[in-house]
Amino acid sequence: MPPSKAVDLLKSCLNKRVEKLVRFSWWPADEVLAQCGADVDLAFASTAGPLAIYFEGNIVLGLASDPALNSIVVWDERVQNILEPDGELFQISASDKKYSIAYWDDIAGHCLLNIDVLRKTSMNEKESLLPSEVGLRMSFDNGGVLIASHGLHDGSDDFSILQESQALLYDVGYFPLK
Questions:
Q1: Cβ–Cβ under 8 Å, residues 127 and 150
Q2: pLDDT (tens digit, 9 = 90+) per residue, 1-38?
């Protein structure tokens, strides 16, 4: 569901420490370079597939994007159990020194302080009828920011994990969780 429909779930993550981040890739980590054209150490951030953020207190937040909604979608992975049993997805951990960079691993061990929903400000008629929540900006107590993105890296409808400096934010409004 779009973030605006999952406010209680998202608020349950606030002020919780991140235990780990795992990408559920469409390809094994060593194939991401060939499939996505990304450097080996960017496989975690560049691959196609959902993200799971494991928080203290047995909370697992699933994130992906849904082109039919023109939006990021979130779910409680412990309840819906979408990712773990899927034998077709390959796990890439943010702590993997070969397939990820320190920036993502450094989020582990830190508390989530703030969440903003990012929504397009200029939309065509079809987009205006959809949630169009194209990003979820999460800031942590170490100063790190993770943006779960629906196309904010290249204008597509692909899901990506971005640092703030990588996101195309010129046509986006920030809306704090309420």
A1: no
A2: 999 999 999 999 999 999 999 999 999 998 888 888 77
Instruction: Answer with the residue of higher pLDDT: 35 or 168.
Output: 35
Percent of the chain scoring above 90 in pLDDT: 67
Reduce the secondary structure of 118-176 to three states and give it as a string: EEECCCCHHHHCCCCEEEEEEEECCCCEEEEEECCCCCCCCEEEECHHHCCCCCEEEEE
User: Tokens in use for 81?
Assistant: 């159990």
Rounded-to-integer distance, Cα 76 and Cα 78, Å? 6
Say which residue the tokens 């370079």 belong to. 33
Q: Is the overall model pTM greater than 0.85, yes or no?
A: yes
Name which of 117, 47, 51, 115 is nearest 82 in CA terms.
51
Tokens of 108: 């582990």
DSSP 4-35: GG-HHHHHHHTT-BEEEEEEEESS-GGGHHHH
CA dihedral 124, 125, 127, 129 (to 10 degrees): 160
SS3 101: coil
Amino acid 174: pLDDT? 86
For the chain, the structural domain boundaries read 3-176
